Every structure is written in structure tokens, then in C-alpha cells.
Amino acid sequence: MTTSLSVPTTDRVAPDRRPPALGGFSPAVLGIELRRVLRNRRTLAFTLIMPAVFFLIFGLPQRGQQLPNGRAVTAYIMVSLAVYAAMVATTSIGAAVATERALGWSRQLRLTPLRPAAYVAIKAVTAMVLGLIAVCVEFAVGAATGVRLPADVWLSTGLGAWLGSLVFAAFGLFVGYLFPAENVMQFIGPILAVLAMFGGLFVPLDVLPDVLRDVARFTPVYGVGEIARAPLTGDGVSVAALANLVVWTVLFALGATRLFRRDTARV
Amino acid sequence: MTSTQPAVELSGLTKTFGAVTAVDGLSLRVEPGEVVAFLGPNGAGKTTTIDMLLGLARADAGSVRILGGDPADAVARGRVAAVLQTGGLLKDLTVGETVRLTANLYRHSRPAEEVLDRAGITGIADRVVGKCSGGQQQRLRFALALLPDPDLMVLDEPTTGMDVEGRREFWQALRRDARSGRTVIFATHYLDEADAYADRIVLVRQGRIVADGTTAEIKNLAAGRLVRATLPGADQAALAALPGVDAVEVRGDSVLVRTADSDLVARHLLTRTAARDVEITSRNLEDAFLALTTDHAGA
After folding, report:
1. Nearest C-alpha of chain B: how many angstroms from A226?
2. Residue A179, exposed/middle/buried by CB under 10 A (0-12, 13-18, 19+)?
3. ipTM surpassing 0.85
4. Cβ neighbours of A17 in B, within 8 Å
5. What is the pLDDT of residues B156-181, one digit of tens each?
6. How many beta-carbon pairs below 8 A join chains A and B?
7. d(C-alpha B61, C-alpha B47), whole Å
8. For residue range B4-42, what is the model confidence (pLDDT) as tens digits?
9. What domains are there in chain B, each with its CATH number?
10. Are the C-beta atoms of B156 and B87 separated by less than 8 Å?
């Protein structure tokens, strides 16, 4: 019956040989990256579950206590821990660069049209998305356990905690390009905890000795912590806090950029 | 292909690491459509050459042209793709996700299902990369390299660490994919792979090309037989004058004769000389390979 001898072939349609738009940055790539992050139990445990548990353990017993302006102390603790959650989240994504360099994935990517800048952009956006989720989870736990705030305070403290965590996305990338190690977060985790301590996220800085309190003002978490809590305490944002945030963000971003250039030039 | 540009043009490529010269003034031209084996022992400079070819390493001297342009441009346009030796995969992505992620980095790519199928890994698309065997990971790298439908495919020892079955399956997949137009360069230290899958063999030793020809030509280097005998004070000139003799070598009391006609040499030795312990061995590609790629310097 069949007389045709023609064999179906995959005809060579001249493929579109232009480099990709935006250097390879695309929603599809971002989506796979996010799914991968959200599947990582370790990341979720440290960024979403641990800060929420901290709130239940250290925040809830303070129920009934009030800040000088009459707001609940639990809200103060919730915002502080939201900052902590966001900074762990953004750092871990940035630092994942270290793992990917150690595994040789960055080298594999260099055989694709993905531009190194687009790769960093994907990491930064992923970091900020995870940071946002971390803040939302912490706030949800707070709201579910009785924290009540006016809508504008929820919004402004949340935005402060989230946007301020950009400094740690830069910090993570800096660390990621500094150490090509698969388990870099094991070293960074404790450092973040110490920084969070100095930033007044675990205990108010007022309880620290004077010397430590003065040193604390120059550590990288201080600025974001103060800024995120300002709408809640009504203290207003100090120049020192703002300067702290800006200087550290610029320093980490410059450091990351420098290392990133060294890495991509090392052909 | 309407282009008459060479697929690859390396000229005077040199790379040193400290006191070690890994690649030493290597020049090579590969025409579109050729399947070339880059054959040499470990440490011959194959991987370093491939890294420079792909723009992953910078040459100390010399130049690389791929399809008329520089390697970075060829990579950005998906005209060249490569299967590297080790690493390079995220353990926590599935096979299918790795392919889809990479596919999205190109402006145009073959469908993910198609390359999975061609690489023979459709069945493990949902498996996490960290749980795949070395051979499966290597076929995943191959699938990734198929995505841009490249004009030039470079494979660096693609079957290292695979068992016999894995090697066979990998080459079958590559052969299924082989079609006119695509240039393939693969590095290997397996002679049989070069013999079975390449049109042309480039033998490298110490960063230099020591032989370059069709598979048949390289095999001819190994043609003939070797006659060895114990013969103190052998008359080298008389032996060399026999028909078919290529070379005569005297080592102490032994004489070695490389020849196309071993019977004639043996008859001569046994009837006209005091030779004893006559041995005749055939030379094969392995011998040619060893002769050409073994370092005799300083011996």
C-alpha cells in the first residue's frame, strides 16, 4: 500500500541565531529558579519556619506588654523577626552563587547565551521574591496570633523590612563570589545571627552594654531594623539608620560587582 | 550550509600553566561537516585546547575562530554547543527542568521533549539530577548541547567513567543525531571510539599535533608487521635493502625490522644469517597510537 520511500527527516529550518533578549533573563527561567528554591526544605526551614517559631517562642510570651507609644511589643518583635527572615532569605539566594560555582553550573551556563549580568539579575529578583515571602509568612503568623496594627503600619513596616533586605541580597552575592563552596550557608548562618543580634532584631539594643550599642550602630543590620520599625514605634527614621543602610548596600554591591567582574574575566 | 568558512580554525594556540606548557603552538582547521576525533593520552592538552576553543580559557598566544567569528559570539548565537567532562549540573533540578531552563536561555531552541528523546532520557525526565548515574548525567549534558541545534558540537571525553553499555548507548545517541551539516569534534583517549565514530583523527601529544589524517591514514601508520630476532652484529644496511622493509633498528643483540613482508624478512634472517629467536608480531592502531603519543624524550 505504502509506496512512498521518503523518510521523514527533521528538516533544518534555519534557527533564529540572534542572542536572546535581555541577555537570557526571562519569566520562564525565573519561574524554574523560584520553584527550585521553594522546593529546598533547608532554605524553607531557615527562612520561613525558623523565624516564625522564634516569634511563637520569644514573641508571644510578651503579649500584653506595650511600647511607649501604646503599640504592642509583640508587633515590635514580629517586625524585627520579619527583617531577620528577609535577610536570611535574600542572603541564602545570593550565596547560592557559591554553590553553583562550586558545582560547575556557572561554567555550564557560560556555554549558553545567558549573560552573566542576567544571571545576577535572576538571583537578585529571586532573592527579593523569597524575601517578600519571608516577610509575609512572619506577618501572617503575627496576625494569626493576635497582632493588630493599622493597615498603613502593616504596609510600611512590611515594605521597610522587605526593601531593606536588598542589602543582604548584595551581601549574599558578595559572599557567593568570594567563596566557591557548596555549603557556604553553614558558615554564613551564624554570622547572620550575630549581625541580627547587633542590629537589635533579637533583643532591643537598649539592653546591650553602652560600648556594644555604639558598635552596633555601624553593623549592617542596624539600619534596616530601625527603618522597618520606625512606622511602628513612631520614632521616625534617623539619618544614622538611613546612612547605615545606604552605605552597607553600596559597599556590598560594589564588593559583589568587583568579584563578579573578576569571575567573568577569568576566561 | 552555504558558508565556506571553516568550522574551526586554530592557529598557533599556546597555553602554559606555570612551567608546564599544556598546549604548544597548536594549529588546526576543521571543515564544516567533519567528525573529528581529538585523540591523545591524559595530559596531552586536549581539554585545555577545548576550553580555549569554547572561550572558557584564554590562550597565551594564537587565535581561535569558530564559524568565522569568535567563540563568545558563536556561543551567544547557539552555533556551538559542548558536552564537558565533569560537573556543571544542578543536583536539585530534575532532568526535565534542567533542559527546560536551558532551552529558555536561547532565543530559539529545539523542543525539550525532542532533545530528551534524542538523548534517550525521556524516561528519567522527572528524576532529580543528583540521583542520576554518571552516564545519565552525561546524556543530559548531551541533550542540553542539542537544544540550540548547533552547527558545531564539541564533546570532551564524553564517555569517561561510563561502563561499556553506557558508552555504547551514548555513541548510539550521538550517531542517531549525526546528520550532514553538523561538525563534531570530540576528545577521547579511547582508540576504538576514534576509530568507530570519527572521519578524521588528530593525534595530540604534549600540546602538539603529532599526526592528522583520515581514520584509514592513521591506521596505515600502523600497517605492517614487526620482526624481531637475536642477531649480534646484524648488517643493518642489508636488512634495510630487503623489499618492503620500512625501518631497521638495532638494540644491543636484538634487531627489529618493520616491514610489509614479514615472511621475506624471516626467511632472510633464518637462511642467510645466524639469527635466532625470531618473533613476528602485527602492529595495530594501538601501537601506532603508543608510538606517536608516548613521550620518549629523556628516555
Report:
1. 37
2. middle
3. no
4. 77-79, 107-108
5. 988 877 788 888 888 887 877 766 67
6. 98
7. 17
8. 789 999 999 999 998 899 999 999 999 998 999 999 888
9. 8-79+150-220 (3.40.50.300), 225-282 (3.30.70)
10. no
